[in-house]
From TrEMBL:
InterPro entries in the record: DUF402, FomD-like_sf, Ntdp-like, SA1684
Protein name from the UniProt record: Nucleoside triphosphate/diphosphate phosphatase
Binding-site list for Mg(2+) 2: D105, D107, D120, E123
Keyword Repeat: no
Domain DUF402: 18-156
Catalytic activity: a ribonucleoside 5'-diphosphate + H2O = a ribonucleoside 5'-phosphate + phosphate + H(+); a ribonucleoside 5'-triphosphate + H2O = a ribonucleoside 5'-diphosphate + phosphate + H(+)
Keywords, ordered alphabetically: Hydrolase, Magnesium, Metal-binding
Cofactor: Mg(2+)
């Protein structure tokens, strides 16, 4: 099993349950890469949608992926604070210089004051029927929504007060280091 290496540039590939590509982030710098965790940073990276449209991310982000949790967390650093976008998803795999996961539609948006909103329940229901999500997926995702909410309330993982400070400063170091190469 190959692992992403700190400082390496990788892509992020999001798929849907039917195996079709959903979205690709072109460039993310690996800040930590182990068998279980990948933490990356990006800023103004190109994102390609499944229909070929592209857009540019607007702010620096720290991305957290775990091989045992059914979610990933994008921490977006904005002028008025850190916003978190939590995707309910399969655990990640790393192959061909890309972090890959299946996006299961449900999302939790977390605001700088740690209030949060569950999003896209209607999209989840539509895709659950359309793509035939098995009942076990539904149970796993509900448990992981509950786990994410506990993490938010307990300020665990990426929601911990020092998480962004540590990883964003490491990202800035990697950017400066890469410019000198």
């Amino acid at each position: 099993m190959t692992l992403p290496v700190e400082g390496q540039s990788i892509q992020i590939h999001s798929y849907k349950h039917d195996g079709l590509i959903h979205r690709v982030w072109q460039e993310t710098t690996v800040l930590k890469g182990t068998r279980n965790i990948v933490i990356g940073g990006n800023d103004r990276t190109i994102v390609t949608e499944s229909d070929g449209r592209t857009w540019l991310t607007r702010e620096p982000a720290i991305c957290y992926f775990h091989a045992e949790h059914w979610f990933n967390i994008i921490c977006m650093l904005r002028d008025d604070g850190v916003y978190y976008y939590c995707n309910l998803s399969s655990p990640f795999v790393y192959e061909d210089k890309a972090v890959k996961y299946i996006d299961y539609d449900l999302d939790i948006k977390v605001y700088p004051d740690m209030s949060y909103t569950l999003l896209d329940e209607d999209e989840y229901e539509e895709h659950r029927k359309l793509m035939g999500y098995p009942p076990v997926i539904d149970r796993i995702l509900q448990r992981n929504v509950d786990k994410l909410i506990r993490w938010i309330k307990q300020r665990r993982g990426p929601f911990a007060p020092d998480f962004i400070d540590v990883w964003y400063s490491r990202y800035q170091f990697q950017k400066r280091y890469r410019l000198k190469e």
